[in-house]
Design goal:
mainly alpha
């Protein structure tokens, strides 16, 4: 969800005699913010997360100076995602305050829904599941008719149910997410839904069903070029292989997940894959 953003820079005036034309005061700031946002996206693709955070923070600052709600929200969310990937959860929450702690600016319902969803995902990653549920409910309230976040909200609800061991509820929410994402042609959320369905099948002891759904998720994530999700798919496929008694196949999946994470410079993903590979090899 990357939207064009606005920002600020010095007002440029053309010097000369008489009445020299003055350049529109927002053109240069907007261009500067858009460029900072693009740099952030490029750094993320190359795994340079600190540089990405620096670029998004600059784009956010520029957007704030223009009181541009869309730019503020977009860059606050981007910065939060990067900080979460770095494991810097306090900083990730702090960046979202640029939206939720600004009572004098009017933010759209969709942006507020997305920010609340980000809070829910942060809490989920930290194991604060009750808080994650509360933020998810707030996100749902902002997500009005034909909301493009519906699939993501259903998927998050499915993950919360999954961690609580409510497998039927998790599968039902994931199926709703899959339906919504298919209707919206959202491949990323389709893959997320299939991954949750696969893990639910794993926890129910159905290795064959899990493998089929996870292979489909992997195909989508490869099409999207999403290394972090590819690694998650491979780890889950390794668990499915282990459940089926295929130890060599399980270790091969874990090794592939480790290689993908290291190539993507995903330290947290690499650590998880390495831990699972070590456990599978008896280290």
């Amino acid at each position: 969800m990357r939207l064009p953003v606005s920002s600020v820079a010095l007002l440029l005036m053309l010097a000369g005699c008489g009445s020299a034309p003055v350049k529109n005061s927002t053109v240069a700031p907007q261009e500067a913010a858009i460029e900072a946002n693009r740099r952030g996206e490029a750094y993320v693709r190359h795994g340079e997360l600190e540089n990405a955070a620096r670029s998004y923070r600059e784009a956010l600052r520029l957007s704030q100076s223009l009181e541009d709600p869309d730019g503020i929200a977009a860059n606050a969310i981007n910065l939060s995602i990067v900080r979460q990937r770095q494991g810097r959860f306090a900083d990730a929450r702090l960046s979202l305050g640029a939206v939720l702690e600004q009572p004098h600016l009017r933010f759209g319902q969709l942006k507020l829904a997305e920010v609340c969803l980000r809070h829910s995902l942060l809490d989920f990653d930290e194991g604060r599941f009750a808080q994650a549920e509360k933020w998810l409910s707030r996100s749902d309230q902002y997500c009005v008719e034909r909301c493009p976040l519906s699939a993501a909200i259903h998927n998050t609800r499915a993950q919360l149910a999954l961690q609580a061991g409510r497998l039927d509820q998790a599968a039902a929410a994931a199926r709703r997410a899959h339906e919504a994402s298919r209707a919206a042609s959202d491949l990323a959320e389709q893959a997320n839904a299939l991954r949750v369905l696969g893990i639910a099948a794993l926890q129910a002891g159905d290795a064959a069903k899990a493998r089929a759904q996870l292979e489909e998720a992997l195909a989508f994530d490869r099409e999207l070029g999403a290394p972090r999700k590819i690694a998650l798919d491979l780890l889950a496929l390794g668990r499915a292989a282990a459940l089926a008694g295929e130890g060599d196949a399980a270790r091969a999946y874990y090794a592939r997940a480790l290689a993908v994470s290291e190539a993507a410079r995903d330290a947290m993903g690499a650590a998880q894959a390495r831990a699972m590979l070590d456990a599978a090899t008896g280290k």
